[in-house]
Structures are given as C-alpha cells and as structure tokens.
Amino acid sequence: MAEDFSKDLVKGYKYWEIYVHENQGYLGRCVVWCKRSDALDLADATPKEQSELFLVLRDLREATKKVFQPDWFNYSFLGNETRHLHGHFIPRHAKPKTFMDIVFEDKLYGHNYKTDHNFKTSLELLNKVRDELKSVL
Q1: What global pTM score does this model have?
Q2: Is the four-CA dihedral 34, 36, 41, 42 of positive or negative sign?
Q3: Minimal CB count within 10 Å: which of 55, 63, 85, 132?
Q4: What's the structural domain count of the chain?
Q5: For the segment 23-47, what is each residue's pLDDT rounded down to a tens digit?
Q6: Residue 66 has what DSSP assignment?
Q7: Looking at the domain assignment, is residue 53 inside a domain?
C-alpha cells in the first residue's frame, strides 16, 4: 500500500488485514489485504493464507450482515491498479439503505458492481463504517 491506510484498519489477522474502502458508494465496502509483502496473485496464496482468507471473508460477511443488513455480497480479486494480493468485499443492497442520514442506492443490484467515483465519502462516514464493523468483529 503506497498510502498509510492504517487508520482505516478494521481488523488484522495473521496473514490478512481488513480495511474499510475509501469509497463507500457500496455501504460497508472493504479491502482484504494480504500481509505478505511479495504476494501478487490469488492462485499463489499459500495454503495457510488460503485457509485464513475464507475465515476472514466469513467473519466480514457476518459482521456486515449485523451492521448493514445487505442482501448479497460480491468478492473481487482483480489486481489491475494495485499489484498486490488483495480483494474487494462489496455488500449489495436490493433496496435503498439509509445510514448516517445518507441514502445508499445500489442501482446495479443483480449485476456487476461499478465504483461510482463521484460518490464522496466523508471522513466521518468512513470512520463510522470502520467503527461499526470493528465493534462486531
């Protein structure tokens, strides 16, 4: 990670870390980051990293259900812009969801997600999402 995202840390595990994503256009979106510095490709994850990854994803899914009640989840390991092993965890909502007096509308529900780069995530929102997830993880 080029920037210091440590302030966005939700939870650390032995091989992975969960960070709240800087763009909350999809409420509860997080990044799951492999801690091994030379990790690049999901298919090259060690057996221990693979095993822990599924635990991390289950923990994050269950925590997100408690906090934001999404209807579905997307998991995306792309590596196009950031060449390091990481995945995007994207909660999906079939109907508009209000959080902190902000209405989140997943206009592409049932289809591939697309980041809305015009969505502005305030520091207050980012911190609240992080803290809500931390409280149940």
Answers
A1: 0.94
A2: negative
A3: 55
A4: 1
A5: 999 999 999 999 999 999 999 999 9
A6: H
A7: yes
